[in-house]
Write a structure and sequence with these properties.
The protein has 291 residues and is α/β, with parallel strands linked by helices. Helices cover 32% and strands 18% of the residues. It has a three-stranded parallel sheet with strand order 1-2-3.
Amino acid sequence: MSSPYSTYMGRFAPSPSGPLHIGSLVTALASYLDARANRGQWLLRMEDIDPPREQAGAAQQIINSLVSHGLAWDGDIFWQSQRSAAYDTYLQRLLDNKLAYYCNCSRRQLAPSQGLHIGACRHPGKPGSSAIRLRTPNETIHFEDRIQGSQRRAQADIGDPVLKRKDGLYAYQLAVVVDDAEQGITDIVRGVDLLDASAWQIHLQKALGFNAARYCHIPVIVGNDGQKLSKQSFAPALDDSRAIDNLRSALRYLQQSSAPDTITDSAALLAWATAHWRPQDIPASRHIDAA
């Protein structure tokens, strides 16, 4: 399946809250293969904007795992921790245009609306002591996901997301949209757990005048407890010495064709998988059980 853009630009954007596990390898591999099959570039962005959640040394572990598995990115690594000036510039633009506002609403105050901030701010704040929220328009966002199909999200379903937290840290929704735009990302391949966030991000793209990206949300891998494999749930780290086995497992999760047993190195396996990449074979489900 080809990209609708003349030049395909993809990315893998892990947070350094722990080493890669099989679930994150599946996402990395899917985004890598989609970029390479479309003769595009594949960038690596380190989403290191939440220090309290980050694990010392995790960023380097992630880099080492990608290298060990032959997943070579194009250009330099993009570090979100170095992007404060850009985020502040776009935040100020939104505030100046009344597309964002200061808010002091707490989680407890928003509990009656299931945590969503909808409509006028009942607890307005001021600079320096408040969160900044995007003013989401009262309209329905429609977008087509390459795996999950047609999607609709109304303003009442998503509310006004936080763009900068009260503690001064930038929120994921702001950073990912700004960075995708400035890196020229055309195609986003990521886990289906982020599908609902796409509506917020499309609203923000429109507010800032950015081009819309094309989305492809793949199922997430869940453990025996039914929970997504994640660093927070202590999913076991990848064994980088078993790169071939790990890549073959990831291809099975993505329901791709099995590569010949005669392929014994990562570079050859990735070349074969790129030539045989069929994203349309990825199941349109929310999760896949871990083996």
